[in-house]
Amino acid sequence: MKSNRLITAVAALCMMMAAIPSMAQVKFGVKGGLNVTKMSVSSDVYSADNNNGFFIGPTIKFTLPIVGLGVDAAALYDERKGTLYIEDMVGKKSNDVKFKSINVPVNLRWNIGLGSLAGIYLAAGPQFGFALGDFSDTWDSDSYKKENMNVSINVGAGLSLLKHLELGFTYNIQTKDSYTITEDYAGGNRGREITNIKTNAWQISAAYYF
Question: Which domain holds residue 202?
């Protein structure tokens, strides 16, 4: 009797596991939004102001309706801007910097339904960035180099509406430096000093899934 029950339970579990792929929902869409870059500088010689940017690209979402878990991924053209300042004996000088990249976020999601027309979700996961454009430049006799690849972490939440539209809010945390600046002077003495810059960002997004 016990063996029959065990066989029945195993068979039911196998049927459930086999049914999960057929129940999963896969949707393709387009995602875009605004970046508010929060630049951090590791040196007292430089300071920075934050600027707005944007991102846009295709996205895909995979969801298991019963448990509300899922994964989303995208390939986004991302542009972040900032203004660097340096102050020397001549005065304070500024330089606008722009970081362009293709970012590939992969987020684990938890969806909570609020009815048939709305829901909320929590999301977190890694993002892989591949820089575009020039990788090095000079400014005021200093040189700065853009990293060609960056890994960051996304943490966010959002609202799902009408089964097609999503509005999200995310904080993107850089784990590597976006820029490295080599200064010709260090502490008023002839020498070299390395300054590291991270381009974290607050992001507001909208996505439409077909």
Answer: 25-209
